[in-house]
Amino acid sequence: MTGSEKRTKQISDRLTALKDEELVRIARLQLPYVTTAYEVLFHRYHRVLTQVCYRYLGTIEEAEEAVNDAMLNVFNRLEQFEERASFKTWIYKIAHNQSLNRLRKKQVEQVEFDELLHKNEQSSPYQLSSDTATLDFLLSKLSIEERSIVVFRLVGNLEFSEIATIVEQKLSAVKMRYKRALDKMTVDAKAQ
Description:
Number of helices: 9
Number of domains: 2
CATH topology of the largest domain: Rna Polymerase Sigma Factor, Chain: A
Helix content: over 70%
Shape: elongated
Order of helices and strands: HHHHHHHHH
């Protein structure tokens, strides 16, 4: 490892220890020419955002594309971040919007495909082979709004107040929808 590489690694290690707010401040000063602080933010959120987006979109490839698009938006719009909410909430909201856009596009395509498939298909039982498949199946039975709340809570480990900010609903409404969604999932799980 060269001296320059060692120095870059040391800087990256020091940045990793910083809080989001400090990294955002540094990234705003560095971008677009130096990306060290941005890269730390990217790596901090990439995995969990991919898990959240996967629960919406159903494939890891689409989830990664949605997260990469979200992170590109963060790169391009970091100067516009107004800090009315935490950076974490802001980045989740961007990923949420990317997922919803992809999901809406996917649903339009799926309706056309389902109509074609329904004409040609004999009824066959749907079998689930794992807990992940079961969770995906139960989530698919929820509305987009309910799914958002459940995914942010269970997969993203967000607080209800953060979820309320992301989905732009009152805290009490988010808590109520979360409970109703869990109740629906329980009923659907028992019906299987």
